[in-house]
Amino acid sequence: MRDDRELSPTELAAFGAELDALRQRTLAHLGAADARYIRRVRAAVRACCAGGRVLLLFGWFPPTWLLGVLLLGLGKILENMELGHNVMHGQYDWMNDPEFAGRQYEWDIAGPADFWRHTHNHIHHTYTNVLGMDDDVGYGVVRLFPEQRWKPFYRWQPLWVSLQAALFQYAVAIQHLRLDKLYKGKLSAAEVRPLLRRFAAKLLRQTTKDYLFFPLLAVAFGLNGLAVLVGNALANLLRNLWTFTVIFCGHFTERAAVFPPSVLDGESRAHWYLRQLKGSSNLQGGRLFHILTGNLSHQIEHHLFPDLPARRYAALAVEVRGIARRYGQTYNSGAFAAQFATVLRRIWRYRRAEAV
Hints:
Elements: H1 9-28, H2 32-56, H3 62-88, H4 113-126, H5 157-166, H6 168-175, H7 179-183, H8 189-220, H9 225-251, H10 269-278, E1 282-284, H11 287-292, H12 299-304, H13 313-326, E2 333-335, H14 336-349
Parallel strand pairs: 1-2
Helix pairs in contact: 1-10, 1-13, 2-3, 3-9, 8-9
InterPro entries: FA_desaturase_dom, Fatty_acid_desaturase
Pfam families: FA_desaturase (PF00487)
Transmembrane segments: 60-78, 212-235
């Protein structure tokens, strides 16, 4: 439950002005430290992935194989969360470095980057938690709020969510295809076909790399290709489960709010800021934990300032919390386990039609 104070027009304008000023102050201080940081992240991704793949070549011998899985999984998590996601938001466009250009970056995941830039950067960040506008609210298969109209297949949503978590990289890619609109006749097959071709091409590249090239490379050197194949699959599973958990904790905790489409009528920048604050949830933890989440543990700050380097969110969070307190707004932050528990309760509770 949230207990937020209703803001007068004057207060709302002042609230928005404070957040605008905070953003401008941060932009003015971007520089060498931020560039050095993201280059170190890129180096860490390369080192973890290379180290993990080399260790997997030693076969099933437990210490090296397990360490290889963990290192490769860590590299994939860092690439997905702290490197790819943040770069694609344009957080480092100011560097004028093609490797960190938001519109050019292609990440190590099944879905094409352009799909994500549209469904996430544009749709989700524009219409955050607006029912019928933000497809991330349940991703079409999960009822998480009583305001969502119940459908019979929600009865089994704990199963759907489990499958979605294990296959999360595929779920977010398929989301862009809008197969639901194709089924309802709102999109034609001719409109969907080019998207399917792009998805198939990216999926083929990813599958070939992880499940053909590296296992066959091991076989070519007389090593255990099956150990490499299973190791790659487990590394991808670790990345999928972690990404799913962090994203759901950032959006669907007990105190996260959803909004009717009418909230967009005449919405000002200040209103948009307020909606981001009300619809987001933060996670508490140490520096390494924040890096592994891509700093989406600071989901409030990410929704408020998606184009600012995520490494700045921890410092911004101190000021945002203070602004929220001054204007009588809930700053939704909690321990990882506690926040995830509320997400699981939502999934279980709202599977039933009578749950409101």
